[in-house]
């Protein structure tokens, strides 16, 4: 069994950023995971898919200059502000990885357990590794959320938007899309464009659309509503520019900000692709769902449960976001999992992103309940990499 100082599990934006910073500090480590897998899978499903955030807020971090998303996009004539293609972002991630973190090992971790003074790791190729410290940077891979009413349906009838491998496969099919956030709205638009017959089921009274922010603004407009990686406005600017501050605040305040900052809605460029093209059922929730001869019968509650109706479709797609829950990390040994204190289902982290299990750190979206909404996005990777790499360097 080989021994290393640090193992990073995950090779998305957070894992790549941390590896680049550790290398600059000459901290011995290995990185396990297929580079940019989540984003590549999303892009390969087809259609015009875009990030909801600004391009300048999606940089993968490294101490070296010349590796921002803009550095990749500018010579290729790509968008520098918005909208940013997810396919272009995935390609940027691979470009970054080859030049900054070429030592990534595209192998999955299948088991992680605590041992005396460290961790025992089993890889999918059968190799066993001992690590003094471990950083989990798995992004959103394990955390897609599907409404409970759909749990009884087979995967070929009901899936999450992140699990779609091809939108073209739904051509000619009746599809119910659940949700009012960017992923649900974009899925409905793409299904329509691919020749399917989607219908949107929205819990609220209406869809919330973001407005396009002019980039030619007066000094007063820029001061009144500054643009940041988390959107526009003073609160977004503060959250983006003081990334560690919220960790010192009461958990109840962090929870409110996490829930209420950047509420579910659609980007301005998506609106014309959806309105007057896809039927929208507002104030609608799914009561029950069942398989009827290979189709799905949905029993719906409309307008606060005052009315019930029925909808029969070929498929249901849940664009209902993600829910961080450590219990869903199947590679974690149960004993290790039991040592991790939680905020809800997410790990409770100290100011260095360390969990209550000694030697274990968690970064990426799973750190957002401890640090705030910035860390739900790629924009939080720079601060995270600097803090965690400094801590691991000090522990050598």
Would you write up a description of this structure?
This protein has 396 residues and is of the alpha/beta class. The chain has 2 domains: 2-143 and 323-394, 3-Layer(bba) Sandwich (FAD/NAD(P)-binding domain); 148-209 and 265-318, FAD/NAD(P)-binding domain, CATH 3.50.50. Helices cover 26% and strands 23% of the residues. The chain is built from 12 helices and 20 strands. The protein has helices at 13-24, 37-44, 69-73, 86-100, 182-193, 219-224, 234-241, 251-260, 271-274, 334-338, 368-371, 381-394; strands at residues 2-9, 29-32, 50-51, 84-85, 109-115, 118-123, 128-136, 158-160, 174-178, 197-201, 227-228, 231-232, 280-281, 284-292, 295-302, 307-313, 315-318, 342-343, 346-347, 360-362. Strands 1, 2, 5, 6, 7 and 20 form a 6-stranded mixed β-sheet that branches. It has a 5-stranded parallel β-sheet with strand order 8-17-9-10-13, covered by helices on one side. A 3-stranded antiparallel β-sheet has the order 14-15-16, with no helix packed on it. Helix 1 crosses helix 12 (381-394) and helix 2 (37-44) runs antiparallel to helix 4. It is globular.
Low-confidence stretches: none
| CATH topology (level 3) name of the largest domain | FAD/NAD(P)-binding domain
* CATH class annotation of the largest domain: Alpha Beta
Number of helices: 12
Q: For the CA atoms, what is the radius of gyration?
A: 22 Å
Straight-line distance between termini: 21 Å
Tell me the number of strands.
20
What is the CATH-assigned architecture of the largest domain?
Answer: 3-Layer(bba) Sandwich
Biggest pleated-sheet summary: 6 strands, mixed
CATH superfamily of the largest domain: FAD/NAD(P)-binding domain
- The chain-level mean pLDDT equals 93
Strand content: 15-25%
Helix content: 25-40%
**Count of spatially separate domains:** 2
Helix/sheet category: alpha/beta
User: What global shape is seen?
Assistant: globular
